[in-house]
Specification:
Layout: H1 3-21, H2 30-40, H3 47-56, H4 66-84, E1 93-94, E2 97-98, H5 100-103, H6 106-127, H7 132-145, H8 151-161, H9 168-192, H10 198-225, H11 228-231, H12 237-240, H13 246-250, H14 252-273, H15 278-289
């Protein structure tokens, strides 16, 4: 198995599906759909759809995973658009080019994010309605991950953390939810498409929690040690904004050790689930060793 070739093939499939399923820029109101497409088609690692596909390919299935991939990337992109807004992180650069509010304006960016959020849930309900239980499970997973106790809750705690003294408990909550929730749900959504049992979905969810924590710890490390050209976005903002991070709380060496520990815990669970798990395991290792 050529891991790089497989991931590149995943990304090509995702880019094609995003282009086909996202409303055309000419659809009224055109500026809104242009802004949605500007952000969702901006490239990037497409990590979450890749996790969906890798989990989906553990076992044979007739369900098409691409709608789930598009829904996840729409949800993720909405969170990035809102995260970049002046009232939040006030970022000028995302994926190597101007953020949505810089390319258009703040109001359009806000609405483009709103539209991507609602569109993500519509895609799942519409494209999987041939199997109502599957559609319900997928909408449940994504809606839960993006809600007030996970993605948005993590963002809220992140903001509160800028005003208070850092604690290990708050830091883990932020990382498990602001970033980790969509990573975890990428794995459970992909796995659900194979008809997995509830017991095995629970094991996959635990794997996702570990891999999500590892991913965000590495992200914290890169923000402290990399440069904007390599990352495709501003770096050093965590320290500038007094954000709680693993390097700030534990130091770089201990943070790398924690990322490795969580990666190995995720891999143990992938091995427990069996099936065609080679790509999943390699993805976990790639996420730990990435440079951007």
């Amino acid at each position: 198995m050529d891991f790089k070739a497989t991931v590149n093939e995943y990304r090509e499939r995702v880019e094609k599906a995003l282009d086909e399923l996202t409303p055309a820029a000419s659809v009224r109101p055109a500026v809104l759909h242009e802004a949605m497409r500007y952000s969702v088609l901006a490239g990037g690692k497409r990590l979450r759809p890749c996790l969906i596909l890798a989990a989906y390919e553990l076992f044979e299935s007739k369900n098409d995973p691409m709608s789930a991939c598009v829904a996840m990337e729409c949800m993720h992109t909405y969170s990035l658009i809102h995260d970049d807004l002046p009232c939040m992180d006030d970022s000028d650069l995302r994926r190597g080019r101007p953020t949505c509010h810089k390319q258009f304006d703040e109001e359009t960016a806000l609405l483009a994010g709103d539209a991507l959020l609602t569109y993500a849930l519509w895609i799942l309900a519409d494209k999987y309605r041939y199997d109502p239980q599957l559609a319900v499970d997928l909408v449940h997973d994504l809606g839960d991950a993006a809600g007030s106790e996970k993605l948005i809750g993590g963002q809220m705690e992140d903001l509160l953390g800028e005003r208070d003294e850092p604690t290990a408990d708050r830091l883990e909550f932020i990382h498990l939810n602001k970033t980790g929730a969509l990573i975890t749900t990428s794995l459970t959504m992909g796995y659900r498409l194979t008809g997995a049992s509830a017991e095995n979905v629970a094991i996959m969810r635990e794997a996702g929690k570990h891999i999500g924590l590892a991913f965000q710890i590495i992200d914290d490390i890169l923000d402290a040690t990399s440069d904007a050209e390599t990352m495709g976005k501003p770096v050093g903002a965590d320290e500038e904004n007094n954000k709680m991070t693993y390097p700030a709380l534990y130091g770089l060496e201990a943070s790398r050790a924690k990322a490795h520990e969580h990666t190995e815990e995720a891999i143990k669970r992938f091995e427990q689930l069996g099936g065609n798990n080679t790509v999943l395991i390699e993805l976990a290792r790639y996420m730990e060793q990435r440079i951007n």
